[in-house]
Amino acid sequence: MKTFLLAISLMAVQAFGQTSQTFFVQPAYSTLSYRQHIPALSFTANQAAMARITQPVAGVYGEQRYGLRELGMYTAAAIVPTRKGVFGGSVFYSGSAAFHTQGLGIAYARSLGKTHAGIQFHYAGQRISGYENNSRMGADIALQYEVSKEFIIGFQVSQEGMFAMGKQSRSTPVYRMGGGYQVSDDCYIGVEMIRNKLQSAFLQSVMHYSFMDAFHAWAGYSSGNGSASGGAGYTKGKLRVDLNVSYHPFLGFTPGVGISKVMKP
């Protein structure tokens, strides 16, 4: 019975979630992908953003959705720039031993002047104790364009698949379109629209502010489920630490922690 209730809870989370993408990211990581200097996990939302990264960087992010240990979600990512382009990889795990989803993604991005292009191939598998396991593969294609030094716009198409008990249903594409504006050296505003066949189009927005050189804070909102989110962080040298929290009007609070580090000068 506990396994069944967890399955129902996780399906409800997916139904009310911010997107149906495989690799979950906070709205801030998603909309921050349009900044000149992005967090390591932002490329899981828009792979073209990797093309602007010039140093190897790795990051991890974990959260307990709505305060439930059984709905823990964890992502790790690494990005390596080369002369041939920028390569990235990520792994993902969500759930518990009885009911979990896990996956990995391999991404590549390249700069073409003011235009940046990225692609990702990903695999995800779902296991529910007592039921047939399920898995799927998919791909993301992303573009970003630097309208000016302060203003970046972008687009992404993800071929997503939805899980069902014991079998896989027809996949459905997810479309993302957004942009970000650097108001000043310290203040950034970003917004993104997300659309798929399973729900009406909705917006994610974020405002990010840096202060006292080493500190930063952000606040965001997702119109898809009426959830608000925010966080604060500290950067020292090559290390960045973020503490995030989001609030769903029906399901409650979700705390999260993100850590990233530049691997060499």
Reconstruct the topology from this structure.
Blueprint: H1 2-16, H2 27-31, E1 57-64, E2 72-82, E3 85-95, E4 99-112, E5 115-128, E6 134-146, E7 151-160, E8 163-164, E9 167-168, E10 172-182, E11 187-196, E12 199-211, E13 215-222, E14 227-236, E15 239-248, E16 252-262
Antiparallel strand pairs: 1-2, 1-16, 2-3, 3-4, 4-5, 5-6, 6-7, 7-10, 8-9, 10-11, 11-12, 12-13, 13-14, 14-15, 15-16
Task: Describe it.
It is globular and about 55 Å long. It is mainly beta and 265 residues long. A 14-stranded antiparallel barrel has the order 1-2-3-4-5-6-7-10-11-12-13-14-15-16. It has a two-stranded antiparallel sheet with strand order 8-9. The chain has 2 helices and 16 strands. β3 (85-95) and β4 (99-112) form a beta hairpin. The protein has a single domain (2-262), classed as Beta Barrel (Porin), CATH 2.40.160. The protein has helices spanning 2-16, 27-31; strands spanning 57-64, 72-82, 85-95, 99-112, 115-128, 134-146, 151-160, 163-164, 167-168, 172-182, 187-196, 199-211, 215-222, 227-236, 239-248, 252-262. Residues 1-24 and 162-166 have low confidence and may be disordered.
